[in-house]
Amino acid sequence: xSAGEHTVAGSRVVVEGAGPPVVLIHGVGADLxxxxxxxxxxxxxxxxxxxxxxxxxxxxMPQGGVTLGSYAAQTAAVIDGLSLGRVxxxxxxxxxxxxxxxxxxxxxxLAGLVLMNGVYDRTPDQLAAIRGRVAQAKAQGNFxxxxxxxxxxxxxxxxxxxxxxxxxxxxxxxxxxPASFIAAYEIFAEADPWVVGxxxxxxxPTLVTTGEDDQGSLxxxxxxxxxxIPGARCHIMPGLRHMPMAEAPDVVNRLLxxxxxxxxxxxxAWA
Length: 271
Prior knowledge:
The chain is of the alpha/beta class. The protein is 44% helix and 18% strand. The protein has an 8-stranded mixed beta sheet, with helices on both faces.
């Protein structure tokens, strides 16, 4: 498919660049523009595919019940709709369990997998904290979470230096459809049973990474994921919190390109 914005299987999709395909999955409350600082760098060497997950940005929430499996099925539908063949998949935050679930059923379609700033095997206290945030969003609206979220996601120095980026993220959070946001956030909050104990099924080269100072997607969680996935590598990004792609795009771009360069390829496709 040509470069530009498209609707694929009901999802808003943006395609850029040429080369072996890389699919980027954003987190709860964001949209495909979360990857703006990565797309250009990656597109110099790859076909970069970004899409809005269910109920975010330009992709509507389907009628009826939606589960984590629905999000993984959306990933498959986008890849099929673009006839991408084998892909490298990068999932951030909620994109981590989506990517893991996709991998369980589609290992043969993955050249590589990056799990970025993801949660894993949360303790009762950690689950209580995120369930409390879901309840707060239900009672007070999406915007009630914004200040605390930005504190968790970005370092104080960056928030002071780049108020433009902070304002953009805050606006994206506020613009979410409340019902769709809450539905996605609840699915993310309850994602552990879908993936915990199954990571040994992932058979492709895998990089697990998070920020050293991420208060939710802890380095210990990334290390546990990497230990559970055969041959996986773990990298902790020094001094960063939950949105390294916004705070330190050069760090993220370098990390992604180094991983992608390590994967075998054949011309414009993955080998």
